[in-house]
Amino acid sequence: MLLDLFLKKPISSPRTRQHQELTLRSLLKAVSWRIVGTLDTIFIAYFITGQVQQALSIGLIEWGTKMVLYFVHERAWNQIQWGKK
């Protein structure tokens, strides 16, 4: 299953252990980044629309979708060995 690729624990070898991130770390990074990104989206939406309710609606929708996309993206990149030392 595709999700197993992203959710399984990292390989426990001395060489790869130091370069693998835990799933929980990726999840917390996704949440913290989405808070920053969503606040930015809310401010931009408010600047464009001038309406707080509309800006918050846009920010809420954007928060959920982009957090999921970031998490999957982060876990996929964690599987790629290119660029790791």
Summed up:
By secondary structure, the protein is an all-alpha fold. The protein has helices at 2-7, 14-17, 23-49, 52-79. It is built from four helices and no strands.
Number of strands: 0
The biggest beta sheet is recorded as: none
Helix amount, in percent?
Answer: over 70%
> Tell me, what's the shape?
elongated
Q: Kindly report the oligomeric state of this protein.
A: single chain
Output the structural class: mainly alpha
Question: How would you spell out the order of helices and strands?
Answer: HHHH
Mean pLDDT: 81
Which radius of gyration do the C-alpha atoms yield?
Answer: 17 Å
Q: Report the end-to-end length measured between terminal Cα atoms.
A: 29 Å
Structure annotation, total helices: 4
Low-confidence stretches: none
Q: What fraction strand?
A: under 5%
Q: Could you describe the 3D structure shown?
A:
Helices cover 76% and strands 0% of the residues. The chain has 85 residues and is mostly helical. It has a domain at 23-79. α3 packs antiparallel against α4. It is elongated.
